[in-house]
Design brief:
The chain is mainly β and 387 residues long. The chain has a domain of 74 residues. Helix content is 9%, strand content 19%. The chain is built from 2 helices and 21 strands. The protein has a 12-stranded mixed beta sheet. This is LRRNT domain-containing protein. Pfam families: LRR_1, LRR_4, LRR_8, LRRNT. Keywords: Leucine-rich repeat, Repeat, Signal.
Length: 387
């Protein structure tokens, strides 16, 4: 074959390959890293774009109008990161690639997670289902063996899901309607390090539900309507949060904003007592996994301030009375209580609105704090001042 003909043929092949590469990235998307990282977010899409390369590693379809992706993503066998958040999906898409490491399906209309939705995702490490309408999730034993981070915050759970994957390190269940943790639900979660339970409806919890969490480092319990007047139900939990080696943010009732860490090792430090602290040091999502690193899930805990957290306000001595007797009065819709004694009193007298009945509540001395704090008490917010 003449040299000129061969050169012409090679040039033609090169031009065809360039055209093919240019056709890989859909016009409404942006592509990078050899067209393996594809961003089709914020385009009002109701259908999956055409011309997506079959070997893409990362696909961002967030902030669109997608309603159903069943069976449309399975052909992307090399997909590692999928962001389908902020769409109109009513369930997790059927037939997702089994190579996925990270799925973000937050801010959709998903009501249930069935066992088959995650049954074959052996490689999945992070699952974000926050800001949906979930009331139940069903996991099968020994599935999701690689899952380390699960975000179920801002949903409609009434009880902590049972049978959660046993190797989870981060679970965010904040901002739900949780009332209870069934006995044994957490017994096999020996690697759980960060557990977000704030902003729920817990009134009491057995301290034994946390006994098997051997790796627990951070637990958030604030902004729950703890039944602090029912000493027989709350005392054991208060004692547990004092002696645990984990850091507890939003201690129940009026102890203080942060407690626990009874046996804190010198090597473990915390930079902040903020409820917005992301799990396991999560940063902004990195769309690429080419370096072999998976992006951590981010907890949806922003904008939270515990009702039972310590209020760092000056001591208000004007609430005291000459006799030193404890009393509760109403000021602008709030009940204000002053203790019998600055140091030793353990009894608080309360008057339930509309009943005229006086109720005395005994408070363990070690739980009193020399500050003003707020808690839910007899259905109202109460300010306790000890000076």
């Amino acid at each position: 074959m003449p040299v000129a003909t061969l050169a012409s043929l090679m040039l033609l092949l090169l031009l065809l390959s360039v055209v093919a590469v240019l056709a890989i990235c859909p016009p409404m998307c942006s592509c990078g890293k050899g067209h393996r990282v594809v961003d089709c977010s914020t385009h009002g899409l109701s259908l999956l774009p055409d011309s997506l390369q079959h070997n893409i590693h990362s696909l961002n379809l967030s902030h669109n109008r997608l309603q159903n992706l069943d069976g449309l993503l399975g052909r992307f066998a090399h997909l590692r990161t999928l962001d389908i958040s902020h769409n109109h999906l009513r369930h997790l898409p059927v037939g997702l690639p089994r190579a996925l490491w990270d799925i973000n399906a937050s801010a959709n209309h998903i009501r249930q997670l069935e066992k088959n939705d995650t049954a074959y995702h052996w490689n999945l490490q992070s699952l974000d289902l926050s800001n949906n309408q979930l009331e139940r999730v069903v996991f099968i034993n020994n599935t999701l063996p690689s899952l380390r981070a699960l975000n179920l915050s801002h949903n409609k759970f009434w009880t902590v899901p049972t049978n959660m994957p046993h190797k989870l390190e981060v679970v965010d269940l904040s901002h739900n309607f949780l009332l209870q943790i069934l006995p044994g639900s957490l017994d096999r979660m020996s690697q759980l390090a960060r557990f977000y339970l704030h902003a729920n409806r817990f009134t009491s919890l057995s301290e034994t539900v946390f006994n098997r969490l051997e790796a627990l480092q951070l637990l958030t319990l604030g902004d729950n309507p703890w039944a602090c007047e029912e000493e027989e139900n709350i005392t054991n939990l208060l004692n547990w949060v004092q002696r645990t080696s984990a850091k507890v943010l939003g201690c129940p009732c009026y102890i203080r904003s942060t407690c626990g860490e009874a046996h804190l090792a010198t090597g473990r430090t915390w930079h902040s007592a903020s409820y917005t602290e992301p799990p396991l040091g999560a940063d902004a999502r990195d769309a690429s996994h080419d370096a072999g690193h998976r992006p951590p899930m981010q907890a949806v805990t922003a904008g939270y301030l515990s009702k039972s957290a310590l209020l760092n306000s000056p001591h208000d001595r004007s609430l005291g009375n000459a006799s030193g007797a404890g009393e509760i009065t109403k000021h602008g819709g709030l009940l204000t209580s002053t203790p019998n004694s600055p140091l030793t009193s353990t009894t608080w007298s309360t008057k339930k609105a509309g009943t005229g009945k006086i109720r005395s509540t005994s408070v363990p001395t070690h739980t009193c704090s020399p500050h003003s704090v707020t808690l839910s008490f007899l259905g109202a917010a109460v300010i306790l001042s000890a000076f």
